[in-house]
Specification:
By secondary structure, the protein is an all-beta fold. Helices cover about 0% and strands about 50% of the residues.
Length: about 375
């Protein structure tokens, strides 16, 4: 016995199909008023009323919607437009929506649409109550500004966390003039405080032999957390305790880093009795390099300073030659140790105006540069 499935679309692109005992079956919504055709909308299942609730999206003429519709699923499917009280969210697409069973509502976050005068991404969160008389309630006023936290975005993903009763959001895009910025951060919207809780690192960078890290947690002005670090072949280890500065920012500077090593960082903190961790973020510590960068500036009219870097602590020599090949200066610089250094050539000798050759030697490595002195 073969089983076939047939599907019949309605004018707005809604499908319902099924097959049982080899008999094809298909149904379409009742021929009542229905939403206009659209894409990039969201939909949730309302288990209390056995229906699908649809919000927003964009039409074929790139018009944006902020209407809400319900499709009953029992018996003959029927569309009905919801008429919520309150001010609705801005029309949008590429947003996310989840069903909050504890409060019987749909929660909408972010998306892309028309801001004050131009199209932009949003960072706001809204709740549409579904029981009794539906109403829109703004939960988080991110508006359309891209500097809000969490930053405005679209094309992200979101799920409902039933254990902690919250909405968890990941990733997304932010539009720039010639390209999109891709996010890899994770946020949670909790219902008790109705604030966004940052679960990820805000910034990480390496400079001058140290790693600088910053986290942000809205509504976490006095948070105390532990900074944890690991290398690629080691386990997580606590480095230090950090406290928010009163505005939600936490900062840490790691000076104990080894060149050529890749480190991962995260925060460990407690929230509502739960031990939580931010997403780990990794940074590569550049390996020390043997390099002769030369005179800075070049040409030089003042005291001639040479910039160079050493890869190790073994003996090293910096030499200066004139155009005839005569060595006129030699200095031992290995005692400066590994890292970036500068050396003033005017210490001990005054170089006349002219062209010179610099040479740096350490072990079996050497580098040369041309230098010009003007007076």
């Amino acid at each position: 016995m073969s089983t076939q499935r047939s599907m019949i679309p309605c004018a707005t692109g809604w499908w319902c199909s099924g097959a049982r005992m080899g008999a094809p079956a298909a149904t379409t919504p009742g021929r009542c008023r229905s939403p206009s055709g659209r894409s990039s909308h969201t939909a949730i299942y309302d288990p209390a009323r056995d229906r699908m609730v649809v919000f927003g999206g964009t039409g074929t003429d790139f018009d944006y919607f902020n209407d809400a519709w319900a499709l009953s699923l029992a018996g003959s499917p029927t569309w009905s437009q919801l008429a919520p009280a309150g001010i609705p969210p801005r029309a949008r697409r590429y947003h996310t929506a989840i069903y909050d069973p504890g409060r019987d509502r749909m929660v909408v976050f972010a998306g892309f649409g028309l801001g004050n005068s131009y199209y932009s991404e949003f960072g706001d969160a809204w709740a549409l109550t579904l029981g009794g008389s539906p109403a829109w309630i703004e939960l988080w006023h991110g508006g359309f500004r891209s500097d809000q936290l969490p930053q405005a975005r679209y094309s992200h993903s979101a799920i409902y966390d039933p254990v902690r009763s919250r909405m968890v959001v990941f990733g997304g895009y932010r539009f720039e003039e010639l390209h999109d910025i891709r996010y890899s951060d994770t946020w949670a919207l909790t219902w008790d405080t109705v604030t966004a809780v940052d679960l990820s690192l805000a910034s990480i960078r390496y400079e001058s032999g140290r790693v600088r890290l910053r986290w942000y947690g809205s509504g976490m002005a006095s948070l105390v957390a532990s900074v944890e670090r690991r290398a690629e072949t080691s386990d997580w280890e606590p480095l230090a305790s950090v406290t928010a500065d009163g505005t939600g920012w936490l900062a840490y500077e790691d000076r104990a880093v080894t060149p050529g090593t890749r480190y991962g960082y995260r925060l460990a903190y407690r929230l509502g009795g739960d031990l939580l961790h931010t997403d780990e973020a990794w940074v590569e510590i550049p390996a020390l390099q043997f390099a002769l960068r030369g005179l800075t500036p070049n040409p030089s009219a003042g005291d001639p300073v040479v910039a160079f870097s050493l890869a190790g602590g073994e003996p090293a020599t910096l030499e200066v030659f004139d155009l005839s090949g005569r060595r006129i200066l030699s200095r031992e610089v290995g005692s400066l140790g590994p890292g970036a250094h500068s050396f003033d050539l005017s210490s001990g000798v005054r170089l006349a105006a002219g062209v010179y050759h610099l040479r740096l030697i350490q072990g079996n490595r050497s580098a040369t540069r041309r230098a010009v002195i003007i007076r």
